[in-house]
């Protein structure tokens, strides 16, 4: 699938997080995706960064595996949703992230970028279930 604008949204320079490479795909069937987010910021539940695999702890390992800076999220809640049929998304390995107190290296683990933007009612997931505190 060719969607250069969507791919550019998902890619980041070294130290920025995001993806270091990616491939744009379109959901041909409902697919379960998972998101770990910050319960103190409810609006982050339907953010842009997801996983096809149910996340496991401990939190610091998950942070390092996915290059998620502590200042970006407390990572204390888990939600599972279905990717809407027809939704375009990007899959690829994580870029390095320069955090306030540390640097996370690039990750070989694939992340899923879904261009959700709740501020303008663009949400490409549905049938969501809050799975509670994470890790559990």
Biggest pleated-sheet summary: 4 strands, antiparallel
What's the number of extended β-strand segments?
9
Low-pLDDT stretches are none
Dominant shape: globular
Gyration radius, in Å: 14 Å
Portion in beta strands:
25-35%
Structural class: mainly beta
Number of contiguous helices: 2
What is the string of SSEs from the N terminus onward? HEEEHEEEEEE
Number of domains: 1
Determine the mean pLDDT: 95
| Strands side by side in the biggest sheet | 1-5-8-3
- Helical percent range? 10-25%
What separation lies between the terminal Cα atoms? 37 Å
Sum up the structure in keywords:
mainly beta, four-stranded antiparallel sheet, 2 helices, 136 residues
What does this structure look like?
It is a single chain. This protein is mainly beta and 136 residues long. It has one domain (4-133). The chain has two helices and nine strands; from the N terminus they run αβββαββββββ. The strands form three sheets. It has a four-stranded antiparallel β-sheet, covered by helices on one side. It has a three-stranded antiparallel β-sheet with strand order 2-4-9, with no helix packed on it. It has a two-stranded antiparallel ribbon with strand order 6-7. The radius of gyration is 14 Å and the shape is globular.
């Amino acid at each position: 699938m060719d969607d250069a604008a969507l791919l550019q949204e998902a890619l980041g320079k070294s130290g920025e997080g995001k993806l270091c490479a990616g491939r744009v795909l379109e959901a041909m069937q409902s697919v379960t995706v998972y998101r770990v987010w910050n319960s103190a910021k409810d609006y982050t539940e339907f953010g842009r960064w997801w996983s096809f695999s149910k996340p496991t702890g401990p939190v610091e390992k998950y942070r390092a595996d996915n290059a998620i800076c502590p200042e970006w999220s407390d990572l204390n809640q888990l939600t599972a949703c279905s990717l809407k049929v027809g939704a375009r998304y990007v899959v690829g390995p994580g870029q390095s992230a320069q955090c306030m107190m540390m640097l996370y290296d690039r990750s070989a683990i694939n992340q899923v970028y879904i261009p959700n933007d709740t501020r303008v009612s663009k949400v490409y997931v549905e049938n969501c279930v809050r799975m509670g505190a994470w890790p559990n």
